[in-house]
Design brief:
single chain; mainly beta; 8-stranded antiparallel β-barrel; 8 strands; elongated
Length: 100
C-alpha cells in the first residue's frame, strides 16, 4: 500500500465530500423555468412554471459530487463542479436559485 504524502489534506477532502449539506435548497435549470428542490436527507421535488408548482417528487442519492435523482417516471445523474456551484448532466445545467 502506498502511503499518502498529504494525509491531513486527504482526510479533510474526504470529510467534505461526505457532508451533503451543500446540495440542500433550490437549483434552477439554465434556460428554463424548472427547479430542483433538494430536501435532505433523500427527498427531491421538481418545480416548474410561473408561479412555480411541484410537478413531480422523487428520491435523491448523494455520493460526494455525484447525485442520482430518481423520479417514478425516470432517473438521471448529475455531477457538481468542484466548488459545488453548478450541477450538470444529461438533463441540463442547474445553478443555485430560488423560484420567482
Amino acid at each position: 500500500m502506498v502511503k499518502s504524502e498529504t494525509p491531513a489534506a486527504d482526510k479533510l477532502l474526504a470529510e467534505a465530500d461526505d457532508d451533503p449539506s451543500w446540495i440542500a435548497g433550490t437549483w434552477k435549470k439554465q434556460g428554463d423555468l424548472r427547479w430542483l428542490l433538494f430536501n435532505l436527507p433523500a427527498d427531491v421535488a421538481e418545480l416548474a412554471g410561473k408561479p412555480p408548482r411541484v410537478v413531480r417528487r422523487g428520491k435523491l442519492s448523494v455520493h460526494g459530487r455525484y447525485l442520482s435523482v430518481l423520479f417514478p417516471d425516470g432517473a438521471y445523474d448529475l455531477e457538481a463542479t468542484a466548488n459545488h456551484s453548478e450541477l450538470s448532466g444529461s438533463s441540463g445545467v442547474y445553478r443555485r436559485g430560488a423560484p420567482p
